[in-house]
Amino acid sequence: MESQVKHAVVVKVMGRTGSEVRVTQVRVKFLGLIRTGFIMRNVKGQVEGR
Q: What family is this protein classified in (predicted)?
């Protein structure tokens, strides 16, 4: 199964989660899609919101 890379912009950093607080919950907007919308994702590592 091949994974496709989808670029997204962090709209809002919601907060940290996980047992050791290493995961950040963010609201993102995907780039290059005709249908606009936001989705919540869990992100590992450093995150910067706009």
A: Belongs to the eukaryotic ribosomal protein eS28 family.
Against a cut of 0.85, is the pTM above it?
A: no
> Which residues have C-beta within 8 Å of that of residue 5, sequence separation ≥ 6?
none
Phi, psi of 13 (to 5 degrees): -90, 115
Contact 47, 13 (CB under 8 A): yes
In terms of Cα–Cα distance, which of 12, 3, 49, 5 is closest to 31?
A: 5
Q: DSSP letter string over 19-45?
A: TTS-EEEEEEEESS-SS--EEEEEEES
